[in-house]
Amino acid sequence: MMYCKRIVLSVMFIGITILFSQCTGMSVTPVKDDVTTTPVYRDPVTYTSEAGSVGMNVWFLSSWDGSNAFADLMKHGGNWNHVEDGEQPAVPMDEKGWPLSDFRVKLFEGAAVRGVDFNGTYKLSFTGQTDIIRGLWSDLAITNKVYDEATNTTTCDATYSGLHDGSNGGVVFEGTRKTPQSPLNSGISNMKMFRPGYPGDGSQMFTTPFLNAIKAAGVIRTMDWMGIGGNANINWSERTPPDNPAVTRLTEPYTTTSDGLVYTNLNSGMSIEHIVRLCNEADSDLWINIPTLANDDYVRKMAQAIRFGTDGVNPYTTKVNAPVYKPLKDGLNVWVEYSNEIWNNFGGTEGGFRAFYFIQDEVRKIAATQPNHPLFYTGKGRNPVPNDEIYDLLYKYPAWRLGSISKLFREVFGDSNMMTRVRPILATQQGDANATLSRCLTWAEQYYKDFESHDLTYYYYGIGGSAYYGVNEGYKSINPDVFFNPAAYPDEVFKKMNLIDSTWAHTYGLKRVAYEGGPSLDSIEKTMNEFTDIQMHALNEDPRMQDLVEKNHDLWDQTGGDTLVYYCVAGASRWEFLRFITDTTSPKMKALKNLKSRGKAKVTAGAPLPGTISIAKYHGPEVRNIETAGGYFTGEGDQMVYNGIDARTVEEYFTLVGHSDAPFTGTITVKGERFYMDHPDYPHGTTRIAIYINGKKQGTVGISDTGGITESDSLAVEIPAGFVAVRVQVEEGWMSLHSATIK
User: Fold this and answer.
1) What's the chain's average pLDDT?
2) 438-452 helix and 390-413 helix, angle to the nearest 10 degrees
3) CA separation for the pair 741, 716 (Å, rounded)
């Protein structure tokens, strides 16, 4: 996950023009020596009564991740290794993943000790026997060891001492017997090692500090826990069961069909049962990521597991009175994302973003064998997509697959829960980079409208890229007084990029949602070439970081953002909200708590309504679907128009952006030029224009031939509070758009 931010931010901090080209490097802007107290800009902020909507990502769970999330330390454990040499291949395991010989296992590493005292007495239990239990790289004393022959269970107290920040530790088992009849060196099973102060019966799964930290957010995204970057699960039977020794398990290599590449070091992620329990105990919404290759049966069972619970192997298909593993609590929502950052190939085939290659293989197979696949549909009058345009297919594939996933969740949860409790999210690249968002939406609207008679709000709840930000050019410095200069933030590029995504979202009646986001220090790291963890900690822990987060979140609200899921609660110092999981008073966490409790900042994007949104004064993004000649700004001063919107091939449109402090019923008129040419495609008559407000069609207006800019007839419209996307779509004829006036 951490490498994707590098790609995103290489785009973010170069500027908006990079959105449509590939970035291969980055120029360094000199840091300002003078420290001014005058901001570059700050829109005035007023707040609504609507509560803020924020979420939080968890990071990869491991022996070194720093979250200390599970009370059972074994859940953070590494591989079962040979007693004397951890570099040898892992010891053999049974079908459940338990060792079949003596072993050693790493349980914690230096980074994980941050803020947590690992010294103390643990409650250790396992099925089987062992002659020796000793510490790995650490002092471990075993006392009160008892073997129960009737149950073949060993229990004992295991006490670590002498540990300090940076210590590593684990356990070594020698002389093991899996059953009373088993030979020596045959392993054990069902090993648990509960931390000091936690009950030894497993009744508390998550540590108190971790729960206190994660519940500060209202949504928990579990992509890293699900191992999506290296998860090649196809069938439900391949997933990690809840009784697996560790929270995930390695899976068999996966070979792609189109190029024969073999992908190893794959995992099946954490069991959905543990993830659901976390959200239940934190009283937070669940955000899941569907594995890239998961088939329909897997998706259906995932939906059933969330709604009805499971017996530990399979989900229930209806509500039961005493489920072995409980479903998501009533009142908590489930956000559903397909895969993760499918556009991101950082690290290549051995990196952490295998989804790019898995989907590339899928679309190559589609191109070679399924000429009538929905991805090739181009709609009325459009040019067919050549089968060899693999990247076009790759970028559109998530829109198609998420549509299918959404319908499967609809089967399980029912119509009434869709887009309320169940919230499918189409996640793309920030700022529509590489047209990952726009090409998905234009394809999906045409296909689903023509074949299933639904608009996109039937399939998707929200859309958009991440929401990472830094500081403005000239302030990317390891010097906190420069970095936190009032002119350094909020991030101007972040404002532009979010307005792009937000306009696309509202054009189709969808919410602008960010799957990840927040302050990211890797942009400064690249600018300065060297940026140490100590320096990153200094910035993260500076009290002014709270203001930076809150001001940029104001910007998110002001440009129409809905839910922003921050990255991440604990993990890499570039993004972490907490250096010490036991201390939830960090500046970032203070900001998060404020954002969750206070009202949202009022939208300020676009022209104030009632009023006129003119092309001459328009400062929003160029969100449009123009496929014929035209599609550019022309003219001067008040006569500037957006040229060439017509209906010869598709019903082209251009979106204008405004905002309203309160909902109202009004009227709209459109000004434009209905230009006549001696051409059969442009006959005399009236251009018919459909008006959509935030994806809802309000009706049509007309502009007649006059030889100049003309005002249409008026149409009654319903204007919502907040972000207002006015989609001006030509259904018949041709026009150049001048303005729209809403009274």
Assistant:
1) 88
2) 50
3) 12
